[in-house]
Design goal:
Elements: H1 11-16, E1 28-31, H2 34-45, E2 49-55, E3 71-75, E4 80-84, H3 87-97, E5 103-106, H4 110-118, E6 126-128, H5 144-152, H6 160-163, H7 174-196, H8 202-211
Parallel strand pairs: 1-4, 2-5, 5-6
Antiparallel strand pairs: 2-3, 3-4
Helix pairs in contact: 2-3, 5-7
């Protein structure tokens, strides 16, 4: 790998950057029925690279058991799918989440592995992006906001009020929908940018070659 050592932009610099251009609402699908799942099943099955994230209703009381994830986000470079979790929808998603022919990329996924295992789902071919920035001189994991600033010089807003909102409710707000979609869409752009820069570790490159992901490196 090439040495791309450089500083993470400061908070002030990040705020001065252009705002991240998220997917438009008409490219974000909120799914809460099996019928909707079956409607997008074929297009989801064709994706070899998926951005991946989850959201859970926060727990504020000591001893309160986490029942999430309540929302599962999958995204391509063109579309985001937000699945409001039920036993039936989780059962529909299980083959995708366990599929070794689909690469899932995201940030902060350690807890997701634990939550899914408790629900009988073993995540396969999941890549934690926060640890792929050592070639930039980063010795600690990098969050999605700083990764977007470093690679694209854009401001990727992260609202604490939205992140800690109730993700288990039936009707998500527009800010929740946009926030959730961005957290799955951005990892696709980040992974492809690292791929274009030849900064993906050899073991992951082997997987992308097997799946044909690096045949077309551009995210567009």
């Amino acid at each position: 790998m090439n040495d791309q050592s450089q500083q993470i932009p400061s908070k002030e610099q990040i705020l001065s950057f252009p705002r991240f251009e998220n997917l438009p609402l008409n490219k974000i699908v909120v799914i809460n029925t099996l019928e909707q799942c079956h409607e997008i099943s074929e297009e989801l099955a064709k994706a070899t690279l998926l951005g991946f994230d989850t959201e859970s209703k926060p727990t504020f009381t000591k001893g309160e058991v986490q029942t999430g994830p309540h929302l599962i986000q999958l995204a391509t470079a063109e579309k985001a799918y937000l699945f409001q979790v039920s036993p039936e929808i989780l059962n529909f998603l299980k083959p995708f989440l366990e599929n070794t022919n689909q690469l899932k990329v995201g940030f902060g996924l350690k807890n997701d592995l634990h939550l899914f295992r408790k629900k009988g789902v073993e995540l396969h071919r999941v890549i934690e992006l926060s640890k792929l920035f050592s070639s930039f001189g980063m010795t600690s994991p990098l969050g999605i906001k700083n990764a977007m600033a470093l690679l694209f010089q854009v401001h990727f807003p992260k609202s604490k009020s939205i992140s800690t909102s109730n993700w288990a409710k039936k009707n998500l707000t527009i800010p929740q929908i946009l926030y959730a979609a961005a957290d799955a869409y951005a990892p696709v752009l980040i992974f492809k940018a690292l791929l274009d820069l030849n900064l993906i570790p050899a073991d992951i490159i082997k997987i992308t070659t097997e799946l044909g992901i690096n045949e077309n490196k551009s995210p567009n």
